[in-house]
Write a structure and sequence with these properties.
2 copies of one chain form a homodimer.
Chain A (H helix, E strand, L loop, with lengths): L12 H18 L5 H8 L3 H13 L3 E6 L9 E5 L4 E8 L4 E6 L5 E7 L6 H15 L9 E9 L10 E4 L4 E4 L1 H6 L8 E6 H11 L8 E7 L3 E7 L43 H8 L7 H7 L4 H22 L6 E5 L7 H14 L12 E3 L6 H15 L3
Parallel strand pairs in A: 3-6, 6-9, 10-12, 12-13
Antiparallel strand pairs in A: 1-2, 3-4, 4-5, 7-8, 10-11
Helix pairs in contact in A: 1-3, 2-3, 6-11, 9-10
Chain A binds a DNA duplex (30 and 30 nucleotides) through α1 and α3.
Amino acid sequence: MHNAFTPHTSGDLNYLKSLNRSTILSTVRRSPGLSRADIALRTGLTKATVGSVVQALAERGWLREGELHSRGGGRPGRALYLDGERHYMLGAEVGVKGLRLVACNLLGVVLASIHQEEPPTDPATTAKRLAALLVQLRQAPDIVERRCLGLGVAVPGPVSPKAPILSLAPNLGWVDIDFLALLREQPDLPDGVWLLDNEANAAAFGEFYFFEGVPPESIAYISAGSGIGCGVVSGEHFPLVPRGHQGLVGEIGHTVIQPGGALCHCGNHGCAETLVSGWALREALHVDIDASLSNAVQTRAGDGEVQAVMKRAGEALGLLMLNLHHTLNPSMLILGGSLMKLGESLTGPALAYFGTHQNDLLRQSQTVPVKVIGDSTYVAARGAAAQVMARAAIEV
Amino acid sequence: MHNAFTPHTSGDLNYLKSLNRSTILSTVRRSPGLSRADIALRTGLTKATVGSVVQALAERGWLREGELHSRGGGRPGRALYLDGERHYMLGAEVGVKGLRLVACNLLGVVLASIHQEEPPTDPATTAKRLAALLVQLRQAPDIVERRCLGLGVAVPGPVSPKAPILSLAPNLGWVDIDFLALLREQPDLPDGVWLLDNEANAAAFGEFYFFEGVPPESIAYISAGSGIGCGVVSGEHFPLVPRGHQGLVGEIGHTVIQPGGALCHCGNHGCAETLVSGWALREALHVDIDASLSNAVQTRAGDGEVQAVMKRAGEALGLLMLNLHHTLNPSMLILGGSLMKLGESLTGPALAYFGTHQNDLLRQSQTVPVKVIGDSTYVAARGAAAQVMARAAIEV
DNA sequence: ACACTTAGTTAATAGTATTTACTAACCATC
DNA sequence: GATGGTTAGTAAATACTATTAACTAAGTGT
């Protein structure tokens, strides 16, 4: 199984143990600083169970004790935190424009990263390049003495839910690539969990798993770059990413939102990607394929044509957000991807459209919060690392 | 919890037992006639565990033994089936046009049903009507001596995922109704599990749970009636229905597929419901609100205007199916709801549009199968009953 | 009649979380 | 500064789970 977490269907005692261990771990992840007693209260487990599990997790370097609580009353509890010192996870993104790698700790803090701006060529060569960068990354001083939990790789296309295989990467021209197998042929690579996932799914998972602040119930992460995809995550203790029958969940770039509209490279007319995506904007703005889109937009900011194109693209994005709201209904939307570098000119119309249209159905005053990530360079790579952690946590 | 099945987050030994019991039950449901040894092989449980669980389930009237296998080799196994004789579940649909009730057994066979074509008025009166019909239904000869597992109610609008409350039923003018509470005030009602769910979700659950033939991996059930909604189900042993933050998952009738199109009652322009829904078709064809839509379409079948309207509506439905494919990616689509009575004139263009557009993305030869349910009178009610069974199975 | 094979049950075993009783530690008050 | 009250955490005994290993049951083929 390459999923971050696939619930077992039938259970032995081992499964029960691992379930409770993961539950306790995720409780601390989502609410750092709880005491054993707090955890027992929240999870419904007994103090005794929590105590023994916490002890085991502390010995293995997953949890550490912190300061004493001071709530008055009786004996103060001992705060518990994820231990950020003894492990790390590797995450990599094979992007259309280059490779991105991170190593991060259990708290989601990036300990080291590498960003190489050079488009992938063929799968085998790319695997070789990636392997070399991984070796380099693992030599960073703060990493060498830690234990590696595994490696997650994010790729720009749908991954089969049956096996960790990249079905299609339209912008790379790759079809049915077993990228992890290619990677495994390389020397000096880490042990542990190895996972492959779609870039938007990985990003969504990471943003959900390492969310700072009150954790949302579920999120949809819209990745707007060369193409446009979307990842969905929900689940308190075991965040699940729906993938669907062929791994096409969240391929919203190819939902038709303008019947009879422009021809998409997928063969249909009026796909969302014909309105809001890297290649659609380049075409509409006559920007060269290698030139920086955001530079072009900024230098021609006063240009009426540019403003019109951006408004149209932004509203298409807002419409996608609205349709997502009525289809997957996440409790939070996150916008990421390289297109977010275009800033207000894109997000302005998108948020305006979404804001003015979203609440007509239920007539509730509450709005779905939207978070925009300006620089999402390492978001997918870190998300892949997060998936490794989630998977490793059920084994420990 | 009003969900059919909410996985526990932390587990005691009771939970483990119930998990294995449900797993075994669902294995027999999906593959009737397996032996204990077959089940052990499929689930990974040991023969001893399967044996003891099967014994308990047989004593309680959930499983029954059947014929001996004849596979040659050693001692033949004893076929196991769900026991259709000792229990029943009640399911009811509060529809825009009337009330529908079923009682069915563990195999999904409808033992008795009542269909009352009279639109609901206010919630309290409707609850009273429904309660009376339930009493009547339970007096059917094949039902009185059985044990009732509970009651599921399907309603025409989103249900809050937090509590069993109908948030909004636009076609009834109901807002935030605790229908089960109103029902509970009535006399002579059954004990057991009580559930409330959206009509499309209930229908989807039932079609998945009681699927005849090789069970699909996941399905989306599109309910096209006065409005247009959709339910999604996946999960081998514990079918899950995603509901989302506000219960809006599958509200595809309000996805915008024609920007700047006709005004929808939700306030937006170009929602799918403005193209394909009962009220949109009535309006386009100048059919009276109470008259039969299918009669009108059939009598004017040669009419060019009618054909054009139906083609446009059908293609909008096909487009919705396509967008669903790229958003939720179910392994099977099921079309139901009262609009299916319009037959080929609607489904023809829909299937044609979906068929010619669906495979361009992955370029795989496999197509997503589509099943059309012509008469879906009791589909939602039976689905609500199925949810009761799924819920009761984890308690037994 | 016999060996062979597979199905299913039984009793002993290992492992899980819980229960119950305990110790630890802090606070307020006398 | 000792004492009682309160909450946190641990330890040992207990109840319950699924597994293991050995068994019986019931067919087929020679």
